[in-house]
Amino acid sequence: MTWFNLSVKKWGRITQFCSLFCLCLFLVISCAPRPQTTTPASGAANTSTGDGRITVGTTAKPRTLDPADAYELAALGLVFNMSDRLYTYEPGSTEIQPQLATALPKVSPDGLTYTIPLRQGVVFHDGTPFNGEAMAFSIRRFIENKGKPSFLLADTVDSVKATGEYELTIKLKKPFAAFPSLLAFSGVCPVSPKAYELGTGKFKPEIFVGTGPYKLAQFGTDSLRLDVFDQYWGEKPANKGINVQIQTSPVNLFNAFRTGSVDVAYLSLQPEQIRNLEAGSKKGDWQTISAQGSVVSYLVLNRNQKPLDQAEVRSAIASIIDRPLLNQRVLFGQADPLYSMVPTTFNVSQPLFKDKYGDANFEQAKQLLTKAGFSKEKPAKVQIWYPSSSPTRSLAAQTLKSLTDERLDGILQFDITTVEGATFFKQISKGLYPAALLDWYPDFLDPDNYVQPFLACQKGSVAKGCEEGGSQTQGSFYYSEVVNKLIDQQRQEQNPEKRKQIFIDIQTQVAQDVPYVPLWQNKDFVFARKGVSNVQLDPTQNLVYKLIKK
Fold this sequence. Notes:
Blueprint: H1 12-29, E1 54-58, H2 73-82, E2 87-89, E3 96-98, E4 106-107, E5 113-117, H3 132-144, H4 151-154, E6 157-164, E7 167-172, H5 179-182, E8 214-219, E9 223-228, E10 241-246, H6 250-258, E11 264-265, H7 271-282, E12 287-301, H8 311-320, H9 323-329, E13 335-337, H10 352-356, H11 362-371, E14 380-387, H12 391-407, E15 412-419, H13 421-427, E16 435-440, H14 452-455, E17 457-461, E18 465-469, H15 470-474, H16 481-492, H17 496-513, E19 516-528
Parallel strand pairs: 1-10, 1-11, 14-15, 14-16
Antiparallel strand pairs: 2-3, 4-5, 5-7, 6-7, 8-9, 9-10, 11-19, 12-16, 12-19, 13-19, 17-18
Helix pairs in contact: 8-11, 16-17
């Protein structure tokens, strides 16, 4: 998934202020630099006004508010807070809970038909009643309008229809045990049939008419205003509304929070800024709220590129990774070491890379490389690529190179290469990069979303690797008939314990074959002013607006 574009912040108020007082201020300002703050957005209240509204600062500028086309954190976070879904997550949990559904789905014995009872007494922001037909319309629109996230349901859903005024029946193309998690995706929310229409590309990016606790009151280039929906069926928000300020850079967001222009700062601050704000919270200046994130970082190893076509070389690279050092030197402790492609968010996660390879195991790496026929005179040379826009991955790559240069006596040599982001993501599936540093932002919270997109291959062979499938898209070109069968099995298995064992088997095979090396699992950080309470993140990285109060 790709993220945020930034807008240019207007400085009108500051310009007017300075023009009125320029003679007085000139003497002061010329002696000391001003912080790079931005003014409150039009219509956004200053945090000291006491009107009960919450001002949220972010650099995340939404491309669209249409849930059928929203596929970036900036948009999905706003859609999440203005909508309801059939199912949702409690903060701090990956367990599915009914929201507009009144119970978990009833699943047919063949795993293809899901029958969902719906909540009554719900209305959209425009007053239209919510019912089975409205929910069916919204899901069909999500698929048929062919927006960026449409594949999530288009690849899975065969048909959807209202089988009662408050009952929905969905038939799948093939069994998929994680399907309820897909229904918790922010974009799979009901929208008013009177405000939207079906049809390829028929999107409405600047409006939102859903059923959630907030309705959209204003959508500007650098600000949004969300007002409390007084006909909301559920528990009303703890605040009087939300003002969203879109800052032009992490520096501006950092300064806006420090100077009190925003109540809450979230997405996206740089690691050094987070460390600085954490230090301030320890002194009692403000609050730090952190939570285990769902984003993972990993090293892709392309089995179709020499010398990575040899399992010993891939295993040697897995052995030299020093995750505690990366966490300290690159991430300032703002992540957790990761030893499986499935993060510790899920109880199926197994730290098999730690058991098999450990951290900074240079002697084991030397033995494996020697076994593969490499030496000081004939070193294994591997290029590591990453998008040039990522300072974190740049530092991670340089750290890996330094470790290798210092500890492996030249038997393994890394060459670090960068490329512009759009080119990088376009070329990686073509097999041009021997190794690459990547992040993964999950589409939905289920272990399947950390397995199937990386390892599945619909077309390929042991000799040629993957020619079409998830592993080809991710750049590893991994092919395993065993893993393909295991992925299909876990997707069909409804028994949680049996499904867990299948995931363990998949992780065991990955630790043996090493198409990827897991590196770290992120932590999410939110900062709040004193007097602001109930600041929480949902497991999908969304800041939950309705709980915040001051």
